[in-house]
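tool_call: predict_structure(chain=1)
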Amino acid sequence: MFATKLIAAAVALVAMQGAYADDKLVDSVAIDYGNAAKVQMVRFSAAKDWSARWFQSNGTHLSGYWEASAGFWKESQYQNISGNTAHLWDVGFTPVFRFENDNKKGLYYEGGIGVHRLSKLYDNDTYRLSTHFQFGDHIGIGYVFDNNWEIGGKIQHFSNGGYKKPNTGVNFLEVKAAYHF
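tool_result:
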C-alpha cells in the first residue's frame, strides 16, 4: 500500500513538469534499490540541481543538487529472530555534491550527507538504531547517457551520529536509475 503511494507520488512529480516548463519544480526523479545485512530498501526521490559551478576546468566542474526522498525498508531478521519480518519507511532530505562534465553527461562522482526520519526504530539482525532521526551519508559513481537516463551505484550509511546508544549503523549497497528533464 505504501509503495503504491510512493509510485503515485513519483508519477505526479513527472506529470507536474509540464506545468513548470521554464522553471522546473524538479530536474530529475530516481528510484534506488539497496541491500544491507538482511534488509532491502526501495527509495523514490526527486532532485533540484544547483546553479553554482565550482572549480570549473577542462570541461568539468563541482556542483550538486537537493534531494527529497521516501524509502521503504523490509527487515528479514527483525529483533534478531530468523524469518521474522518487519517494515519501516523513511523520508529524507540530502544536499549532494557532484563532480561532473559541464554538459552534465557521462561519468560523475558524488557524495552527500542528509537527514532522515524513520517511521520506527530499526532493530534487525544484530544492528540497532535507537532513534527515529538518522543521518544518511553516501558516496557514489554513475553515468548520465545522452538520452537523459542515468545509472549509478553508491554506498550509503545510516547512523544517528552517536548521540544515543545503541548505534551500530546500517550500510547499504545501492543501484540507482534516474531520468533528467
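agent: The radius of gyration is 17 Å. Proceeding to next step.
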